[in-house]
Automatic annotation (TrEMBL):
Molecular function GO terms recorded: thiosulfate-cyanide sulfurtransferase activity
Pfam families linked to this entry: Rhodanese
Protein's UniProt name: Sulfurtransferase
Stretches assigned to the Rhodanese domain: 19-134, 165-281
Amino acid sequence: MTDWLIETGELAALIDNPETAGTVVLDCSWYLPEAGKHAKDDFVRGHIPHAQFIDLAEISDPASPYVNMLPEAELFASVVGRLGIGNDTDVVIYDTGYVSCRLWWMFRTFGHDRVRILNGGFRKWKAEDRPVETGEAATPAARTFHAETVAGRVATIDDVRGAVARQDTTIVDARTAARFDGLEGSGYPGVASGYMPGAINTPWALFFDASRNFEFVSTERAKAIFAEAGADLSGNVITTCGSGVTACILGFMIERLGKDDWRMYDGSWHEWGQQPNTPKLVKS
């Protein structure tokens, strides 16, 4: 698959067609723990008809000291299988913010390429006054999902240390400028502020167009954003952020530009910032 987006009109036609039962729609909306609320409650109040809810916390490594880390393949397979997804299932992902690209990356990292993201997400769906369903989702028939981790998609902390030392990799960081510069806290207790030497800040919000109901920007605009920041995408590329979520937005846009060999630093700043021997720079 080369076009990873699906438009609202196309999805509306899809869910109204009984012959498209092979598609599962997933709402992966999520809040940072500090928000003190859970996106599942929002889902119950309103969601795209026939959608299922998937919790980022449930598909993250429960044993890791770092947040939102990629789980074992068996855990991911178990959760998505319970949601009615098999290896022949087409998956459409949406959210109310910035998490869809993380789930897109996870599916593909576990070998499932039959996945698309709803352009504009639930915000655009509601802005167009499309139908909304309330209450809990119907329980689907469980499917068997075989997940195998695809090599070369995840960068470890040692990979990033090496890239920083060799200066042979473009590291793009999706955090806000204030977080990246160290002018405000990291957002996690006990995690230092700052950025990695050589990293380039390309804040994730730049890749959404608020004037168009939060659609992704065009590939032409994405290319310009990276170029304006001085990010050379022609060689090795690693994306990073605060906890491995918004870094996937950068990767999603990089892949839409035709480059599929980028890697995502799963531990991101939540891991890097807690290590005593990792270099951390702060702009004055």
